[in-house]
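Bumping with the actual sequence this time:
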Amino acid sequence: MDNIFNKISISLIILGIAFYAFAMTFTALIPSILGLLMQFVLFLGRTFPKFHKHFAHVNVLILILGIGATFGSVSDLTGYLLSGNELERPLATIEQFTTFVLCLVGFIMAVQSFINARKVN
């Protein structure tokens, strides 16, 4: 489980830094902030192993918040692809959509991991 969270959070950090290099706006760093927050929760999980499951659930909550915050980019990008609607902020929409996909994949993998852990126990 930690491996999943680690890879997703590092990807979010890199995504935010890369888009900040292009856009030079603070909002481009929001995925990096999500990734750093996930890394901090992973650190807490390693520091306090007794509460590891709780910290894993906190990381899932962070992923859910990331999905909810970036869901609007899905409709924007779908409108662009299907009907040719112009994007107001193309870089921001692409970054938000990429964040959405990363968070969604992390959430699905986390739920699968939780289900598999329940089957083992």
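The tokens above came from a reply further down the thread. Residues 2-120 form one domain.
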